[in-house]
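Hey L., structure's done. Input below.
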Amino acid sequence: MALKRFPVPVNSAVAIALAPTLVKPLLDLVTALLTTLELPPKLREMLILLVSHETRCSYEWAQHLPQAAAAGVGDDELALVTDRHLDSADPAERVMLDAARMYLDGTPWEDATMASLLERFPERQVAEILFVLGAIRMFTLYINALDIELDPSGEELAERFADLAETRS
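Output:
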C-alpha cells in the first residue's frame, strides 16, 4: 500500500486514504515536491509556510516548521512569510514571495511578473514554484476542510524526507 511507503505516518497522509484511488499519486507528488526539486529547500519551505499562513492551515504550518528550520529558514524568513509589508533583502526571495502572494490571491499575472521570476530563476524552478504553490494550496484546503488533528511527527518527518532527498541526489 502507498501509505506504507510514506516516510512517517502522519494524519494528513492517512486522510488522503479516504480517496483510495488518489493515495499513490498524491503521496508520490508530495514526496517529489519534498525530495526532487531543483528549487533550493529553503525557498521551497518558505513557499510551503507562505501557503500554510495564507490559507490559515495550522496543521501544515506546524508540520513544516521543523523542515523549514532544517532547510535554513530562520526568524527573519518567517517574518517575511507572515508579514506582507516586509521585503526580503534578497531580490530572488522578494520576487518569489511577491509572485506567490499574487498567485494565492488570484491576482492575474502580468508579463512583468513572469519576467521578474525568470530573471532570477531558471524556467524549471519557476515551474516548481508554481507546482509547490498549487499542490500545497490543494493540500491545505483539504486539511482545513477535514479539520485534521495535528500530529507530533513534524521533526521526524523532516529528518526522513532529508534522508530520502539525499538518497535521490
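The mean pLDDT is 87. The radius of gyration is 16 Å.

-- N.
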